[in-house]
Amino acid sequence: MDNVDRVLAQWHAERPDVDPAPMGVVGRIQRASRLLEKGLATYFATHDLQLWEFDILATLRRAGRMTAGRLVTASMVTSGAITNRVDRLVTRGLVTREVDPDNRRSVLIDLTAEGRTLVDKILAGHIDNENRLLAPLDLEDRDRLANLLRTLLTGLGDVPD
């Protein structure tokens, strides 16, 4: 039993005419997301980072310098949020912002040497932390869950551009 089972049982008792099964799936995904984010945030806090900061730094580390627009797409936040976040990372000396010499209307975001060093320093520990968070699942269950979530995400429209 988990907390979602309790909620579903309450719905069954109060509204036996309604099948709340979809609430079970969506509720578990939402709860798992919150618990995973909490576990990730705890790890990143030990490196004086917030989860969103690592997301941007890691995106730049794996994909290289990119326009602010591409970073918006990669991070799934608004352009206003990216501007604010990049400003904060520039202030911390972890990223740079420069006008694209090939298109003066675009801004290029890149890691500084300090930003690159930070990502490289904490990446292995991040992966270890994710393994710890996923410890209740064996490797076969992880693969099965990853495939199911991929099917759901692509069905919801989360596909590469």
From TrEMBL:
It comes from the Bacteria. Residues 22-154 form the HTH marR-type domain. Keywords: DNA-binding, Transcription, Transcription regulation. Coiled coil: none annotated. GO terms for biological process: response to stress. GO terms for molecular function: DNA binding; DNA-binding transcription factor activity. This is MarR family transcriptional regulator. It comes from Actinokineospora globicatena.
